[in-house]
């Protein structure tokens, strides 16, 4: 059996769903191919969706908590409290519902979806691409003008067509608990080499439960695992008392690919979201950047489909449209490295002592945006003299990054 579509999208996660919606809105026929029997399971996510990404899909009803503030803790315990209840900083959503509704919007717009299906092979020809798909145990052929890989961190499409690997592959682990004594609307972040080497741990309100997790890079973990380090935060750290009443009701873990691929599109194949390595280096968030990537690329991809211009030259031009996003992520990574990943606990404590001053918190509240830390970094360098001393590495990263 042979099916015909303009675009076949492998992977019905949030980015595949959003891409399908945008392509349908541009008038193309779209097929979503999802290996699982349902959308949104299993998921590996802390569930934070920033206001910009949320405004693109208007799915506020999937939020379990609205996050307006953060308590950030230095390795020795110095807390810095930021935020203002008047301003929503991010949404803590039910990922299952969020993914289902994003994909549901594309189906309402006319996209087809095959569940329990996955590609077995693919060929690229001069006039079309051919996917051999295992659909409910039977092999069928899908002929299309473009194959899109939205199939996550270990993307089959990326590996099949040898796109290379994202620059950094972090790992995260998370438990969902009851009994965490957090503040409504406020997330906690914990730092320190003994609990999240080079990165941080979190406790995020999610309705009646709290998601407690950490992330790091495999080369920084030595002999430990993310799971054992999270256990250390909860049972054997200066903050353990806070976790003493927690009861674990769920566990998740997974990779966080960051450092977007140099090429994300070639004749008749494109990669989006985790498959392209588009997670933010500062937060690990992948939904916002995945949506941003779709918005940047879809108008030109649509024109390429309509004019049937899948030339190498046109694809290089479309891939380059992501250069500003790549640059933004590179600068954010340079700041993250300078302040967190490459700082010793002593240096981090020094930074927290400065951040905890009232006048500095005011600046953080006015300009701080975890999704875009560069403007805050520049303002702190300009306005806080002690900061210049501890941040000389960061200043270099900002200038040369
Ligand atoms: C611990 C942890 C916490 C995180 N927290 C956040 C957070 O708070 N906010 C945030 O924005 N991001 C977070 N992320 C990252 C986020 O989960 C991903 O960036 C996001 O899910 C990427 O969406 P995607 O659609 O690109 O890929 P995915 O969500 O991975 O979706 C890929 C889809 O493709 C399907 N698929 C895979 N292979 C195939 C195949 N061969 N055939 C058919 N289907 C296939 C999968 O079943 C899945 O449905 C976190 C990640 C981790 C590990």
Description:
- 36% of the residues lie in helices and 28% in strands.
- The protein is α/β, with parallel strands linked by helices and 401 residues long.
- The protein folds into 3 domains: 2-45 and 95-166 and 259-321, FAD/NAD(P)-binding domain, CATH 3.50.50.60; 69-93 and 171-257, D-Amino Acid Oxidase, Chain A, domain 2, CATH 3.30.9; 328-400, no CATH class.
- Strands 1, 2, 8, 9, 10, 11, 17 and 18 form an 8-stranded mixed β-sheet that branches.
- β10 (129-135) and β11 (138-149) form a beta hairpin.
- The model has no long low-confidence stretch (mean pLDDT 93).
- Bound molecules: flavin-adenine dinucleotide.
- Residues 10-16, 33-36, 44-48, 118-119, 150-152, 156, 172, 174, 213, 254, 256, 273-274, 279, 284-288, 290 line the site of flavin-adenine dinucleotide.
In the CATH hierarchy, what is the architecture of the largest domain at level 2?
3-Layer(bba) Sandwich
Distance between the termini: 51 Å
Percentage of residues assigned to helices: 25-40%
Cα gyration radius (Å): 22 Å
The percent range for strand residues is 25-35%
Sheet with the most strands? 8 strands, mixed
Average pLDDT, rounded to a whole number, is 93
Number of helices: 13
Shape: globular
CATH topology grouping of the largest domain: FAD/NAD(P)-binding domain
Secondary-structure class: alpha/beta
Query: How many discrete structural domains?
Result: 3
